[in-house]
Amino acid sequence: MTVQPIRLFGDPVLRTKADEVVDFDKELRTLVQDLWDTMQDQGGAGLAAPQLGVGLRVFTYHCDGFAGHLVNPTWTAVDDEEQVGQEGCLSIPGMYWDCLRAKHVVARGWNMHGELVEVEGTDLLARCIQHETDHLDGVLFVDRLDEQTRKAALREIRQAAWFDGNAPVIKESPHPLFGGR
C-alpha cells in the first residue's frame, strides 16, 4: 500500500491543466495504484492525479457500488436533468457545500493498460466523474458554487487550520455543466 500526501487548496498543481497520458506503462500502473490506495485510506469517492502532485489526466473512483479508474477521460451528459447535492473534496478537507451537477453522465477514457473504457453513472457516480474530470482541468468544485455560497466557502477555507494562506483562485471549467467537450 502506497498512500501519498494529498495536495491541499492553494497548491498551484490543483489549478494547472493536467497533460494527456501517452505512455501506458509501469509508471502509470504505479500511479493508478497510489491513487487507489490514497483514496481508500482517506475514505474518498474519487481522487485525481493532480491531487497527488502529478499533472496527468488520470483519476480513480469508488462510489455507488462502482470502482475503477479512467485515463484521459471525457464525459457527456445523457440529458438535461440536474442534481444539487453536498460535495466535498479531499483537497479541501472537512468542508462540504451544495453544488449543481448533471444527474446522468457517460464517461469515456482508457484503463491503465490502454483499453477503451466507458462508465455510465447517475447521482453520486455522475457527480464524482464530473468532479474528478474538473480536477484534471485545474478546476475545483468551489468554482462551480453560486456566487454567495462560493464567497462563504472561500471565507471558511481561509479560516481553516490546514490553509497555508495562498490566495484563492477561481477558474471556469472548460466543460459546460451539460455536454462536456
UniProtKB/TrEMBL annotation:
Its cofactor is Fe(2+). Keywords: Hydrolase, Iron, Metal-binding, Protein biosynthesis. Fe cation binds at residues 89, 131, 135. GO terms for molecular function: metal ion binding; peptide deformylase activity. It is an enzyme of class 3 (hydrolase). One of its GO terms (biological process) is translation. Its EC number is 3.5.1.88. Removes the formyl group from the N-terminal Met of newly synthesized proteins. Requires at least a dipeptide for an efficient rate of reaction. N-terminal L-methionine is a prerequisite for activity but the enzyme has broad specificity at other positions. This is Peptide deformylase.
